[in-house]
Write a structure and sequence with these properties.
single chain, Alpha-Beta Plaits
């Protein structure tokens, strides 16, 4: 199977064409300027307002329009999404499949005047649409031919932009892999090239986020999921300051490297950015089919140290996957507590027999699992009986009775600090080993 790291190296409808707006961002506006010139040229010649949309029918450029606007075009200029019923109606007219100009009749129900639509294609892919308001439905065949030539010109520009974007993305992927290298020299050279190629504005404090999926890397549909993850992270990056973020799709996860000085991160916090990442991925991939959690590494001094933040985020994701009820859908390495230390251990090699014998006894019997829960709550509260009783919703007398039973059944001395430490660590290790226990006490 193709490596998802390389998934987007060839322009395809799934990987390149869906978002022409992304192509316009790569070069500081040259492509947008050229498209504006193309639209202005034909609008001046035909003396009618012209607009260019991407393939999702989102406005890219439009011409000076005077009073010749209908409600649908005005809404798009105001950055409002096209209503779903309008999109569905346009699809019934065959504009997606058309190879030339299509006359779109007026639709008073939508506040939409008659217009001409010409699909914009490049490299064999649908890239967008050229629109001309034709309120009186009197556009001539010569004018339609002129619009088709204009759409061809726009297709060349858009496709070139997508190819350039793909080249940039390939270079970025390669350099992101390098900053994650074990070789410090390779990492430092990669940082230097990221700055020289103006992929990042400058080196500086950085943090890595990892969005991990539960699907195995080789599962059916992995390539499509990788493309969806890539597009989702692109959408997140559109809200960040340009040249302050990098990302890479890898088997089973996607990583996002963000400058610690990024304005959006300072304003909303890294946790807010992580929640946005998760939401964008949920919009791109059905979360019921592909649950996603986002893990955050510690902030490091520079991109050459991003490897450390990346590995922390990976370990945090593994812990959260095993104990999802404890950490939820967004987890930070800095907030893992004792699990930071335990995540460094080779958990796959831990022998359950290493757990305190008394704890093993309690875990072995389902009818005493509620005592395990009681013990964990008590130790999590550092032996604070009132706090533990409140969390367990029991009277303090009941809690004291349970603690005595724990000591009796497990031959445990809760007054011994070392035993308490051993028991507490044993409970956390048991969680990481996938052991679970009921929280409910058996009927009296």
């Amino acid at each position: 199977m193709a490596d998802p790291d390389e998934l987007l190296e060839q322009p395809t409808p799934e990987a390149l064409a869906p978002d022409a707006l992304l192509a316009l961002e790569r070069d500081g506006g040259w492509l947008g300027t050229r498209l504006q010139e193309i639209a202005d040229g034909v609008a001046d010649e035909l003396r009618r307002p012209v607009a260019i949309d991407d393939r999702q029918l989102r406005l890219i450029v439009h011409t000076q329009h005077g009073d010749d606007l209908d409600r649908v075009r005005l809404d798009s200029i105001l950055k409002r999404p096209l209503p779903a019923d309008v999109v569905a109606w346009l699809e019934t007219l065959g504009i997606h499949q058309a190879r030339g100009a299509v006359r779109v009749p007026a639709n008073p129900a939508f506040g939409m005047d008659a217009r001409i639509c010409v699909p914009i294609r490049g490299g064999g892919h649908l890239l967008g649409y050229l629109w001309l308001i034709d309120r009186d439905d009197d556009a001539t065949d010569e004018q339609l031919a002129r619009l088709e030539r204009t759409a061809d010109d726009a297709g060349v520009v858009l496709y070139r932009g997508l190819l350039l974007r793909d080249l940039d993305r390939g270079r970025e992927r390669e350099l992101v892999r390098d900053i994650l290298s074990e070789d410090e020299g390779v990492r430092r050279q990669a940082v230097q090239q990221l700055v020289e190629f103006e992929i990042v504005e400058r080196d500086g404090p950085s943090v890595v986020l990892v969005a991990a999926t539960s699907a195995p890397p080789g599962a059916a549909g992995s390539s499509a999921r990788a493309a969806a993850l890539d597009t989702a992270i692109h959408r997140v990056r559109r809200h960040l300051t340009p040249k302050r973020a990098l990302h890479l799709v890898r088997p089973g996860h996607v990583l996002l490297v963000v400058s610690g000085n990024e304005t959006s991160v300072r304003r909303h916090g890294v946790a807010g950015l992580a929640a946005q990442v998760r939401q964008e991925i949920a919009n791109a991939v059905d979360p019921a089919e592909l649950p996603v959690l986002v893990a955050i590494g510690s902030q490091v001094d520079g991109l050459a140290d991003a490897r450390r933040s990346y590995h922390q985020a990976q370990r945090a994701a593994k812990v959260a996957t095993l104990i999802r009820a404890r950490f939820g859908e967004v987890v930070s390495w800095d907030e893992l507590g004792i699990y930071r230390m335990l995540a460094e251990l080779p958990l796959g090699d831990l022998d359950r027999l290493a757990i305190h014998p008394g704890l093993q006894t309690l875990l072995a019997r389902p009818q005493t699992h509620f005592l395990v829960h009681t013990l964990e709550c008590y130790l999590d509260r550092a032996g604070d009986v009132p706090a533990a009783a409140a969390e367990l919703f029991v009277h303090r007398t009941t809690l004291y009775h349970r603690l005595r039973r724990i000591e009796e059944l497990g031959a445990i001395d809760l007054g011994d600090g070392e035993q308490r430490l051993e028991l507490h660590l044993g409970l956390k290790i048991a969680r990481l080993q996938g052991l679970e226990w009921s929280t409910a006490a058996p009927p009296a």
